Amino acid sequence: ELILDNSSLKVVLYFSYVEKVPWKEMCPSVLPPGLRVIEELVSPEEEKMLLENINWTEDEVIPHAQKSLKHRRVKHFGYEFRYDNNNVDRDRPLPGGLPDFCTTILAKCLKMGYINQKPDQLTINQYEPGQGIPPHIDTHSAFEDEIISL
């Protein structure tokens, strides 16, 4: 229960913890053309492996691959996504390509037909508690036909 300053209004806030958000009940029944929601693509073991392999504390040897932005930290692989122009510089690939820890999941996506070609760019965002994803539209013009969001 919370009583707001200068008000006799009482606000009650309830927290519910769920293992899985019932997105089908919360979202429109018709998804935008081309959008697919794939449930349980990543196993708990794969999720753990991904999180263990993303090192936010190491000194980066790849220039411009890791940055701290206003509401998050971000790592780029393959190409740096440039937020100043919402694009990538195709003439300046980052050394090393995509990290090896993505190989299994990308192979699964290719095998299942979720994507038609292996991606050449990866952006990983880390949000701290209390931060959120602000409203935005992903820039598709910087890439080919497919965008994967995990």
From TrEMBL:
- Judging by the UniProt lineage, the source's domain of life is Eukaryota
**What are the transmembrane regions?**
none
Q: Which cofactor does it need?
A: Fe(2+)
User: Which biological process annotations from GO are given for this protein?
Assistant: demethylation
A GO MF label: oxidoreductase activity
What is this protein's name? Answer: Alpha-ketoglutarate-dependent dioxygenase AlkB-like domain-containing protein
**Organism field:** Micrurus carvalhoi
Taxonomy of origin reads: Eukaryota, Metazoa, Chordata, Craniata, Vertebrata
